[in-house]
Specification:
- This protein is an alpha/beta fold.
- The protein has 2 domains: 6-191 and 223-246, Rossmann fold, CATH 3.40.50; 259-413, no CATH class.
- The chain has helices at 6-12, 14-21, 34-43, 77-88, 124-137, 168-179, 201-209, 228-246, 293-300, 327-338, 385-388, 392-413, and strands at 24-28, 48-52, 93-97, 116-119, 141-144, 156-160, 186-190, 341-346, 352-358, 361-363, 381-382.
- Strands 3-2-1-4-5-7-6 form a 7-stranded mixed β-sheet, with helices on both faces. It has a 4-stranded antiparallel β-sheet with strand order 10-9-8-11, with helices on one face.
- The longest helix is centred in the C-terminal third of the chain and has 22 residues, at 392-413.
- The radius of gyration is 24 Å and the shape is globular.
Length: 414
């Protein structure tokens, strides 16, 4: 029998489709970004959706919001979105909340009942409260950064908040997350420089209100049909992939650190091999804030990515296993900063796993990819750059890792 989601099932399989059908996702903000995220989730077979917004469809929404048509003007966005979802999937369990999410309304929501949260709201205070509440409940969240004043949808990126750059909103959220001790937050942001609107905010508000400019928001950003929509679809795709990869009520990609796992120094708890010895001083101080291998691990935890992973391992790479496929380029980067030598543990499947020895200190910043498997760090052959970087592809990944680390250190100092 033909099913509406047969074409999706061909890609991800029946088990993953059932996982999505059993999942409940809350989308906060049903606008230019959130409306398309909802669309992607509904058309992917997510079984339960909570829609949170207190806005009504207006004329100025027509240029970018999926639910905005002449027929829906003046109607609550959550009601219009609910009808659209049920037209796509009548079996979807849709719950609407006609309220703006703000610090004063946050107690109306039980985040422990959600498998994933989408943050597509505009206000910084609301975003921060939403992020904190999701983190406190152990519920995975993905947050939309600025989509306004942009024209290039190809500049959108998925990253941890600490890896972001250029976006003014991401800079604010990044700083506030640091103050709150939030170390991991998946976001979608743009590397495009914001475009200055051709009219000032007061002129726009005066025209839209038919007279005196109401004191609503500081800026009125310009927008298009193709940047917020693409951001929303990317967000929907990330949620779907995380749900089928990690399952309900798990924290896909970004495990929260429990307080008891943190060291008294305020740094993250270390699990890599030889972390106790990873305190040798840096010989190269060009990376701001990197004084020991432990500092480097802290930074690389925000820098390692799928692009720096060895190509053959990328299908298995995830943000919860960031060290996968990073060993050689990381080891030679460590050698750049701390000196010492690089050695290789022979692997059963061929090749070697690289680690470092600096004086009497032996440590392996990428050992966590092996889980409980024990590696032998004695009597192994020394590895050379000439041997490893004979591969141009590996050398380019090494350069990328260096560039990303330098950018991260600059942003952290800003």
């Amino acid at each position: 029998m033909v099913n509406a989601f047969d074409r999706t099932r061909l890609l991800i399989g029946a088990e993953a489709m059932e996982q999505l059908a059993q999942s409940r996702v809350a989308v906060f903000g049903i606008g230019g970004v959130g409306g398309y995220a909802v669309e992607a989730l509904a058309r992917s077979g997510v079984g339960a959706l909570d829609l949170i917004d207190n806005d009504e469809v207006s004329l100025t929404n027509l240029n970018r919001q999926l639910i905005a048509t002449r027929k829906t003007l003046g109607r609550p966005k959550v009601d219009v979105a609910r009808e659209r979802i049920l037209d796509i999937n009548p079996e979807c369990r849709v719950t609407v909340h006609r309220v703006f999410y703000l610090p004063e309304t946050k107690d109306q929501f039980d985040f422990s009942s959600y498998d994933y949260v989408v943050d597509a709201i505009d206000t910084v205070t609301g975003k921060l409260a939403l992020i904190e509440q999701a983190k406190a409940a152990g519920t995975p969240i993905i947050s939309a950064m600025g989509a306004g004043n942009k024209l290039d949808p190809t500049a959108l990126r998925v990253a941890d908040i600490e890896q972001t750059s250029v976006c003014p909103l991401a800079r604010v959220i990044r700083g506030e997350c640091r103050k709150r001790g939030i170390r991991k937050l998946k976001v979608v942001y743009s590397t495009e420089l914001p475009i200055r609107p051709t009219e000032n905010a007061d002129t726009v508000r005066r025209r839209e209100s038919g007279g005196e400019a109401p004191k609503t928001r500081k800026d009125v950003p310009g927008s298009t049909a193709f940047v917020p929509s693409v951001m929303g679809l990317i967000i929907g795709g990330e949620v779907v992939k995380d749900l089928i990869r990690n399952g309900n009520r798990k924290n896909p990609g970004q495990p929260d650190e429990k307080p008891e796992e943190r060291k008294e120094t305020g740094k993250m708890a270390y699990k890599f091999y030889g972390w106790e010895q990873a305190t040798v001083p840096a010989a190269d101080e060009s990376y701001a804030g990197i004084h020991t291998p432990q500092d480097l691990y802290d930074a690389l935890s925000h820098v390692w990515c799928e692009e720096t992973c060895a190509p053959r391992m990328r299908p298995d790479w995830s943000e919860s296993n960031r060290t996968l496929g990073q060993c050689s380029i990381t080891s030679f980067l460590i050698q750049d900063i701390f000196g010492g030598k690089v050695f290789g543990v022979p692997l059963k499947e061929g090749g070697v796993h690289c680690y470092n020895a600096v004086g009497d200190s032996v440590f392996d910043l990428t050992s966590e990819q092996f889980g409980d498997e024990k590696l032998c760090y004695e009597n192994n052959a020394e590895q050379t750059r000439e041997e490893h970087f004979a591969s141009e592809e590996k050398y380019q990944r090494y350069l990328l890792l260096k560039d990303r680390l330098a950018a991260y250190c600059r942003e952290r100092q800003a």
